[in-house]
Specification:
Blueprint lengths: L2 H17 L4 H20 L2 H4 L6
Length: 55
Amino acid sequence: MSTVAKLLARKQVLLERLEGDPGPNEREEIQALLAQIETALNLLEPGDAAGPSDE
């Protein structure tokens, strides 16, 4: 699994946790983790996001 795929999978899990109506402390923690994931995704080079090559 690529780095991008791992980040996107983790992001999905966190978004699902947010839908479960967490308490205020947990919500803040989830939002901070989501911000870190977004930053990591934005820092990855476009070639990294393309996934495996067809070689």
